[in-house]
Known about the structure:
By secondary structure, this protein is mostly helical. It is built from ten helices and no strands. It has helices at 3-17, 20-35, 40-72, 75-81, 86-113, 119-141, 147-161, 164-168, 183-192, 200-233.
Amino acid sequence: MSRLAVALRLEVTLQRRYRFLHAAVFSGLLWLALLLPMPGRLRSVAEPYVILGDLMIVGFFFVAGAVFFEKGERTLDAVVASPLRFGEYLASKVLTLTGLSVLLAVFVATVTHGVDYHLGLVLLGASLGTVLMLLLGFLTALPFTSVSDWFMPAVVPVAVFNLPILAYSGVWTTPWLYLVPTHGPLLFLGAAFGQKTLTAWQYAYGIAYPVLFAAGMWVLARRLFDRYLVVKTGGQ
């Protein structure tokens, strides 16, 4: 069995222990309780905001919570000392939590809209948005030793990554918001429910920019992991 497969199995076990699946199901039920009483037209307007909010919960907060659980249980010390590579460790989190987030987004969209939405765009927007929020949550959690220390400073990057909501809703339509990488995923979610019509350059931007931004965040995550965990534990 490959190291990545072992890491994936361990990650699933840890997420079950941390009750992430239970929390995700509870979150999905809350969103359904919000969406189902709405008229169909209003539901389509609200759906992209709901899915983006769920990406933030499953992506940003779940991965940060996992990091703090692992720090408290000294699991990360064992990871640093093991043959598991950083890329395999982080990939296991990204793959499992992105899968959970996308599954939840499709579930909520299907319950509220049946098949009257664009599945491919939901998958694209949810997966890209979750990866970005996951990496952001991971990056912000590494320098801190406790949730209480982390929570207030984490509000700033979360707020920045949610700024495209202002452009999407028409409140603030400055082109500068295209520099925020979650803008593309939000455009895809809006188009999936008939709220936006995208041009070819927006499709290209919505895929390429988040992928490049996520790659840069991955590199930064490796450096912060080495700085805050590997060096402190004496790993290589």
